Every structure is written in C-alpha cells, then in structure tokens.
Amino acid sequence: MKNTDDKLISRNIKPTAMRELVFDILTEQTAAISLSDLEQNFQKSDKVTLYRTLKTFENKKLIHSIDDGTGSVKYALCAENCQCNPHDLHVHFFCTKCKHTYCLNDTPIPSVTLPLDFEIKTINMVVKGTCANCKE
Known about the structure:
Elements: H1 2-10, H2 17-28, E1 33-34, H3 35-39, H4 47-59, E2 63-66, E3 74-77, E4 90-95, E5 101-108, E6 126-129, H5 132-135
C-alpha cells in the first residue's frame, strides 16, 4: 500500500482504506471503468461512497472522466504529469464490439482554433470502431 499512498499523497489526497482500494482497482484496468463496473468490485460499499471517491480523484487530477456516448461516464487514471489542461487531453477509443473505452494517451486531440474571446475548458474526442482484441 506504500506506493498507493505515495500516489494519493502526491495529488494531495488523504489515503483512506476505500481510496486505496479504488485506486488499486483503477490501476489494474486496461480500459476505462464506469461507476457501476467499479461497484461490482465492492460487496459492502455503497455507490455514493464510490462516487465521492471518484469525484475526489477527478478534482485532484488523479483520474479523468470520459463521455464516450454510451450514457455511462467512464473513469481512467491520468498520466503521471497530467494537470487535465487542454494540452493534456488525448483521444479516446470506444470499441463498438466489446464496449470498452480506451485512452489513447499518445494521440493528442487536434488543435482547435476558436474565435476571439472564446476559451477552451475541455475537449472530448471519442473515436469509435473495433479494438485490437476484438479484431483478432
């Protein structure tokens, strides 16, 4: 748990047993996870506690949320140096076959030119298709 505690503390998050467990589950994921998917890992925890943990992680820029168009927000860990600014944003990929959402960390969102006095707060770009696992 030491490494987990260090990661949480580095983002100014007080380590608690629940936060450590949620973080450990998030680190095991190869795709983004929804609140209901996360909830399946906890037999005796309520959805509100898990939601608050995710929101704390998101507010402290440990994770980011993804609207992949499925109607269920997904969550994924941020890169180590991410501050969730527009220049940190990356493309997401939604597999229409397995329904998993992946972060394409090495694929930045293309530059967007806005009219004068417009300011970008966030950009969401989701590419849909078939992932490598489903294509095999």
